[in-house]
Design a protein that fits this description.
heterodimer; A: about 325 residues; alpha/beta; Rossmann fold; Alpha-Beta Plaits; 6-stranded mixed sheet; 4-stranded antiparallel sheet; 12 helices; 14 strands; about 40% helix; elongated; B: about 475 residues; MetI-like fold; D-Maltodextrin-Binding Protein, domain 2; 5-stranded mixed sheet; 19 helices; about 60% helix
Chain lengths: ~325, ~475
């Protein structure tokens, strides 16, 4: 549906050129939620803005539904943008307009008739659950409510693509969750393709099907969310995943004892339900203490983590690790003992 | 006095109202354009932006009074006259327009770029962004700026007196500064303060209402204010346009306030009997009455003497002629500390007017008093022409109107007759020496050559030189103004 072919974005600063996006190629499928994650300055913001040409690429091709949108003239571009909704970190609602007028703004732009605007605004308010706030001004709303208005506005012209620029970064965890739920719901209901950028792995974990990890302008890793969580390849991916398991490394530090290995065991798919730990104890005659354990609920699957301290003969500990690996279970040795 | 202040208030409202409207018509589009052509804005265009920036900066650099004189031809073309409140509107509007542009620019730049980005992302045209985002979101700042513009124009309108525009500021200057009429000055300043205060409060209220979203209620107050201004405007318009000639017998004469306008007003009934409707336009400077004469906005003026007219003719390539001398305002040498020239000590400081022709006349008077010797006798005499100065007196050039107030700070001062008079000094009693016998300095009726044979002007001069009027002048001013003897 959306195809990026070696897209570049350069900025001319006073006396040097900055490359914000470097040779990014990717394919975004219809009906998926595609996440782009990276630390700030990674180029993800420039990348998403090129998908509706709020920023102009310096090179490459962006093919949407078979057409290279970089060839569009102004009028055609405006028509295209009406079919690509966008929501923002700071909502960007018009402060001089009420909630319903803000939503109507999108319809005015697309030259809807006055009579049909009112009806459509009503539908959208219902979709985002804000019927009772129609005549309020944005400043009278909470952050979450503002983002709901922005979502309603972005969906007004029945777009097929929704771009989300850090839409939950200014919200508290609870509100973030409810906005993400809403995004998932409308994606299902309307069959949207959603492209979102974020610096929070939580968001990717919660809603995305596939993800691109960006670092210094480049796409360093692309894959399904499960793949990335199970087996992150790039340093950035590892770092970002570590962040949501921040407690683990603290616990590991506190537990380290000479002679006892500490390992991280990652289960996914079928292995989540296997009773490997008890089998391990029986087979190798070692003691095991569980330091921490978590399960990440991804959109389409679950990934479990256990951090174990192995006690007993160091040779047997080593054999136990090898056995686990032979069982197709991913093991990371965190401390060699 | 009530009528004077009433008319001046209407004139001020009239000038300010239309100047605001016109400066808005020019300034708002320019301000919008200079904003959206900025780098990264919706109509980015570096060369357009640079050109507009330059124009705005040049226009803003002009001192108002210079601009006013420079654009007299434009005023004439647009409103058909170079004098009066209507003529003042054009320079007021033009000097305010670049200011309006800047106000609009800064208000529009305050609009959150995120909102513009959101509108773009929705597929908005640039026109729609301007109409639905830039202006509505910048409204509070725009109203704040508009308030500032109106108050600024009220301030500038004080200078409109230079081209006979009248208004409160002019009344304050003419009556307070030049004629020592303190109550009129105070009242006119109070009215200005009240106007400024009302506009500022309304502006603040409006902004508060925009922010608290109660603009509907306040909207009506705003409408009332506009209606009042509109209602006042035609009044002032009529006041103003009544000086434009409608019949052959109307004669418009520009004059200084004292004693020229007073003398003209004295002869008004006499001329009326002869079928001549004399209109007097008061100017408070010495350049515009001649320019107005050249433009044909007035048919004669009465404020200058022959040396001044000659110098003006030379510097402006004009050929104004004198229709005859009417009165002399003797320069006098005054002192608060000494009563005779011989008592003036060594190293004394003597104030003289700082404009060239008055300075020359003052130096000639000091020569007559025996204080200095000059090697020149013309109207271009300057302190450089002093060849002997036995008492080593120090010449202190000051603004002519300012000298009476400075009399305490100098040993002695040469003061123009009219300023001496308004300051309560009488040349024939208080001066140590005067030049009342020098008819070279008689104030003349000046016309352009095309008007030389205008019977109405001839009649005016004849009446002014008649024995009755001469007697009236001499009695009225008790020596401060002396009618020119035997013409």
């Amino acid at each position: 549906m959306i195809k990026l072919n070696s897209v570049f974005k350069n900025y001319q600063l006073k006396n040097r050129e900055v490359v914000a996006v470097k040779n990014v190629s990717a394919e975004i499928h219809e009906n998926e939620i595609y996440g782009i994650i990276g630390l700030s300055g990674a180029g993800k913001s420039s990348l998403i803005r090129m998908l509706n040409r709020i920023e102009e690429p310096s090179g490459g091709e962006i093919i949407v539904n078979g057409e290279n949108i970089l060839t569009y003239d102004r009028v055609k571009l405006q028509k295209y943008r009406q079919k690509v909704g966008m929501i923002f970190q700071h909502f960007n609602l018009l402060s001089s307009r009420t909630v319903e007028e803000n939503i109507a703004f999108a319809l005015e732009i697309a030259k809807w008739e006055k009579g049909s605007i009112k009806k459509r605004v009503g539908e959208l308010l219902e979709l985002v659950g804000l019927q009772d706030k129609a005549t309020n001004y944005p400043e009278q709303l909470s952050g979450g409510q503002k983002q709901r208005v922005a979502i309603a506005r972005a969906l007004a012209n029945n777009p097929t693509i929704l771009l989300s620029d850090e839409a939950t970064s200014a919200l508290d965890p609870k509100t973030t969750k409810s906005i993400l739920e809403l995004l998932k719901e409308i994606q299902r209901k309307l069959g949207l393709t959603i492209v979102l950028i974020t610096h929070q792995m939580e968001v990717i974990k919660e809603v995305c099907d596939r993800v691109m990890v960006m670092s210094q302008g480049e796409a360093v890793e692309i894959g399904t969310v499960e793949e990335i969580f199970k087996n992150p390849q790039s340093d950035v991916s590892k770092e970002l995943i570590e962040e949501i398991h921040a407690n683990d490394s603290k616990e590991i530090e506190l537990t380290k004892v000479r002679g006892n290995k500490i390992i991280k065991v990652i289960f996914s798919g079928e292995s989540v339900n296997k009773s490997v730990i008890s089998e391990l104890v029986r087979k190798f005659d070692i003691d095991i203490s569980i330091i921490t354990g978590t399960i990440d609920e991804l959109k389409n699957s679950r990934i479990g983590y256990l951090i174990l301290e192995l006690m007993g003969d160091i040779k047997k500990q080593q054999e136990a690790v090898s056995w686990l690996e032979s069982q197709n279970i991913q093991v990371e040795v965190k401390y060699n003992g | 006095m009530v009528n004077l202040l009433y008319v001046a208030t209407l004139q001020t409202i009239y000038m300010v109202f239309f100047a605001v409207v016109i400066s808005g018509i020019i300034g708002v589009p320019v301000g919008l354009w200079v904003t959206v052509s900025r780098e990264g804005h919706i109509c980015e265009n570096k060369s357009v932006n640079a050109v507009l920036e330059t124009i705005i900066n040049i226009m803003r650099s002009f001192p108002f009074i210079i601009l006013m004189i420079l654009i007299l031809p434009i005023s004439r073309y647009v409103v058909g006259t170079t004098i009066g409140s209507t003529a003042a509107i054009i320079p007021l509007a033009l000097s305010a327009a670049p200011f309006v542009a800047r106000v609009v620019e800064s208000a529009l730049l305050e609009v959150d770029p995120g909102m513009i980005e959101a509108a773009k992302a929705l597929g908005s045209s640039r026109g729609k962004i301007v109409r639905s985002v830039l202006f509505p979101e910048g409204k509070a700042s725009l109203v704040n700026g508009l308030t500032l513009v109106i108050i600024n124009i009220i301030g500038y309108s004080a200078m409109a007196g230079a081209i006979g525009g009248g208004g409160l500021g002019n009344v304050a200057i003419m009556y307070g500064y030049e004629r020592y009429d303190i109550p009129v000055m105070i009242y006119s300043v109070i009215i200005i303060i009240v106007m400024v205060q009302v506009i500022q409060s309304l502006g603040n209220l409006y902004v508060r209402n925009i922010k608290s979203r109660k603009s509907q209620k306040f909207f009506y107050t705003w409408i009332v204010i506009v209606l009042v201004a509109l209602a006042a405007s035609p009044f002032a318009f009529i006041q103003n346009f009544s000086v434009i000639p409608k019949k052959e017998t109307v004669l418009i004469v520009g004059a200084s306030a004292v004693p020229h306008a007073d003398i003209l007003n004295h002869v008004k009934p006499i001329l009326a009997k002869e079928g001549i409707d004399l209109k007097v336009v008061v100017f408070n400077d010495y350049v515009t009455p001649n320019l107005a004469l050249q433009q044909g906005s007035i048919q004669a003026n009465y404020f200058q003497n022959i040396p001044y007219m000659d110098a003006f003719n030379a510097s402006h390539h004009m050929d104004m002629v004198s229709m005859g001398g009417i009165h002399v305002e003797p320069f006098g040498l005054y002192s608060k500390k000494y009563s005779s020239v011989s008592a003036i000590p060594n190293g004394a400081s003597v104030a003289v007017p700082n404009d060239p022709s008055n300075e020359a006349r003052a130096l000639l008077l000091l020569q007559k008093a025996g204080l200095i010797t000059l090697n020149s006798s013309g109207s271009s005499t300057t302190p450089q022409n002093i060849v002997s100065n036995p008492k080593n007196i120090k010449i202190v050039p000051l603004d002519a109107a300012q000298i009476p107030r400075s009399l305490d700070s100098v040993t002695a001062a040469v003061i123009n007759g009219n300023y001496a008079m308004t300051a309560g000094l009488n040349p024939s009693k208080d001066a140590m020496v005067t030049d009342s016998d020098n008819v070279d300095y008689a104030n003349i009726i000046t016309v352009m050559p095309s008007q030389e044979n205008n019977p109405a002007i001839k009649k005016l001069v004849a009446v002014l030189q008649s024995p009755d009027v001469k007697a009236w002048i001499n009695a009225q001013y008790k020596g401060a103004v002396v009618a020119v003897p035997n013409n």
